[in-house]
Amino acid sequence: MKALISLAVLTLISDSLSIAGAQELEWVSDTLGEYIIVPMKNAPFPHKSRERGHAYENTTYTFEMCYSDSSVGILIPAGYEKKDTVDLIVHYHGHLNTVAKEIEEFQLRQQLKESGHNLIMILPQGPKNARDSTCGKIEDPNGLRNLVLETLNFLHEQGKIRTQSLGSVILSGHSGGYRPIAFSLDVGGLDSHIKEVYLMDAAYANLTSYSSWAARSQGRLISIFTDHLMGENLEIMRDLQKQNVDHFSVLLDEDVTTETLKRNRITFIHTKLDHFALMYQTHYLARFMVSGK
């Protein structure tokens, strides 16, 4: 599979977005590491599915304002080591958000560094400041694969990595990020690389996408949820049992330690934190990464 990834990277070089030649790029560097927000042709948008915008609850979200931004945030933690493969976490934001706001509001750079893992985070811009979970090109076959390959090519051109060989991938999503996670699992084209999935109060729909992936892949699934998504998480548990997966844990906030997270391949956490606070208040995202391999 890695050979195929490398071959695909070479085929993308000729038509990938040559950002470096088109404009002056500037990485932001500090004690947390470095990051950049850049346009990419394989970002979720623009996409034909939203070329006429979208209406939801008496609000119209126009193409120009909400679906024309092809930004992708790339976060590299301090101390990152260039190795023979590149491990990634791809994080999808929720409704009414932007890449820059998500990075700051939910302390993503701090949590990435705190994890202590040699991971690069990719944060694609979804519907911008809109109540919408559609994910444009991520819903197309190999959508995630195309975005990851373009990102690896860009990072290699920038001298941030020494190889374009993909290692393991973590998928994470908050709230409305449930849909791009589901399509990444179902048609994203990186099935053999995806090792972990984090649903951050995000089990709204596409529930069988998560349970089926956990059953077929033996990958690690963590779903943290507030009261309003308890029913959906119970449905995922029931579906896992139907697929003969009955070894999973259900924890409360006070039960969550690195040891309890490591002990179980599939973990559900009923949190008392609110829908937004669970993303940053106790650094759950970092704690999930810390407990991974």
Strand order of the largest sheet: 1-2-5-7-6-8-9-10-12-11
Tally of DSSP β-strands: 12
CATH topology value: Rossmann fold
Write the H/E string, N to C.
HHEEEEHEEHHEHEHEHEHEHEH
CATH class category label: Alpha Beta
Helix content: 25-40%
Number of domains: 1
Quote the beta fraction. 15-25%
**Spatial extent as radius of gyration:** 18 Å
Description:
This protein has eleven helices and twelve strands. Helix 5 (108-115) packs parallel to helix 11 and helix 7 packs across helix 8. Helix content is 33%, strand content 23%. It has a single domain (2-290), classed as Alpha/Beta hydrolase fold, catalytic domain (Rossmann fold, 3-Layer(aba) Sandwich). It has 293 residues and is α/β, with parallel strands linked by helices. The two termini are 20 Å apart. The chain has helices at residues 2-13, 19-22, 63-66, 99-105, 108-115, 143-157, 178-187, 207-217, 230-242, 258-263, 284-290, and strands at 28-30, 33-39, 54-56, 59-61, 71-77, 86-92, 119-124, 166-174, 194-200, 220-225, 249-252, 266-270.
